[in-house]
Amino acid sequence: MISEIVHRTGEDELAEVFIGRLDDGALIEFVESVQPPVSREEKLVLIVSNLKGCPVDCPICDAGGSYAGRLTADELMAQIDFLIGRRFPDRRVPVPKLKIQFARMGDPAFNDAVLDVLEDLPRRFDAPGLMPCISTIAPAGREAWFERLLDIKESLYRDGRFQLQFSLHATDEATRQVMVPARTWTFEEIASYGERFMTSGDRKVTLNFAPAARYPFEPERLITLFSPDVFLIKLTPINPTRSSGEAGLTGLIDPADSTTADALVERFRACGYDTLLSIGELRENEISSNCGMYISTFTEYTPAAVRS
């Protein structure tokens, strides 16, 4: 469980990052955010950690580089309980869209307890707008996890009440191995699962891309595997994390100038894909509410006596 909140940062009207200490002393971070101009009363986004660090050292994310194990179901739920409890202590959440995103520290597909929490959420909260979101690199060897996820979606979250995202970040598999340095499903395996996952009334499966300027990026290569009837595209800038800076990565999309994405968006749309350009408020980079960013800064610059 979370024994204490050791730090918080951010702005109530945009995003707040919380660092919690678990009973074993490990630190994790979790986030509450809104998406201006949409109000908190219309949509609330909670982003929770799945692991203590991450075993995958992706060059665009600061959550990797250290790994100390999986979170238990109680530790996962404690993050959600805290974030919901501060706004809705009676666990009744009358928000039309309550998105709970398992995407902060660590890929959710590494942790079976994430599935236990997905099963428990509808019983635990009175939240008609509940919509879980799984964002994953599709690690190899986790086929049983994905089969159980499909069963949970079918039984509890049909008719557009679940969002599944695969983080590809590249349009060819060789470049993807650089951007996601782990054993993962092939594009063909991801496409096959997505075809099974999306049934009538469901949301399309999202393919996430944060394209890097140094690598080729060819949307047309995807069309033979990923049907536009099943998959949609989400394009994001590469966040200015410490890892991306050390790797010398710059994005094809400038977060300060959305027009830099116009050509990419049009190429995807020309292939028939619904295409979403997702550029958050620039202030979020200063808050460090993006992509597992804040905890590395906190642990480096906070005295050990405070952290322990």
Task: Describe the structure in your own words.
The protein contains 10 helices and 12 strands. The chain has a single domain, classed as TIM Barrel (Alpha-Beta Barrel). The two termini are 16 Å apart. The mean pLDDT is 92. With 308 residues, the chain is of the alpha/beta class.
How would you describe this structure in keywords?
12 strands, TIM Barrel, globular, 308 residues, ten-stranded mixed sheet, alpha/beta
Look at the structure and give the CATH class.
Alpha Beta
Number of strands: 12
CATH topology value: TIM Barrel
Query: Overall mean pLDDT score?
Result: 92
Supply Rg. Answer: 19 Å
Largest sheet: number of strands, sense, barrel closure: 10 strands, mixed
What's the domain count? 1
Q: What ranges have pLDDT less than 50 throughout 5 or more consecutive residues?
A: none
Helix content: 25-40%
